[in-house]
Specification:
Elements lengths: L15 H5 L10 H4 L5 E5 L3 E7 L8 E6 L2 E8 L19 E8 L10 E5 L2 E7 L15
Antiparallel strand pairs: 1-2, 2-7, 3-4, 4-5, 6-7
């Protein structure tokens, strides 16, 4: 695992990766779920970070992913199309509809130019490649 110095307070037995994404691992009853933000999985491979967002009922053309500074920003809209269902009267609607935006702070060791996204069966998968670690090198000391 990459060794980064981060500005957050460190707790024993907690990796930098856990701290980087700690607010994203809230249970489904957490703030993200209450506000309609999609559930997200975060995984790490030797080459990249992989973020998978659940977006059921969202059309691919209603999803936008961009990088803004050190943030990955996901926005989307899930439309309620009752007018398309002629003759149907809804008595209760519990599905979440509307627009949302979710930002994820990216670690410093990523190549933002290489980010790729796929959308398959309502799951948006964003792959963020890691940069090559800087190799240690000896610095020559010059005399005057």
């Amino acid at each position: 695992m990459t060794n980064l110095t981060i500005s957050r307070r460190r707790r024993p037995q907690t990796s930098w990766f856990d701290e980087m994404f700690e607010d994203l691992f809230a249970p489904l009853t957490g703030s993200a779920a209450r506000q309609g933000s999609p559930a997200m999985n975060v995984a790490e491979t030797p080459e990249s970070y992989v973020l998978a967002f659940e977006l059921p009922g969202v059309n691919e053309d209603a999803v936008n992913v961009q990088v803004d500074g050190g943030q990955l920003v996901l926005s989307a809209e899930r439309k309620f199309e009752a007018e398309r269902q002629e003759g149907v009267e809804f008595h209760r609607v519990e599905h979440r509809y509307g627009t949302f935006t979710r930002s994820v702070t990216l670690p410093k060791d990523v190549l933002t130019d290489g980010i790729e996204a796929t959308f398959v069966q309502g799951v948006l998968t964003v792959t963020v490649p890691k940069s090559e670690p800087t190799k240690a090198r000896r610095i020559e000391i010059k005399t005057t």
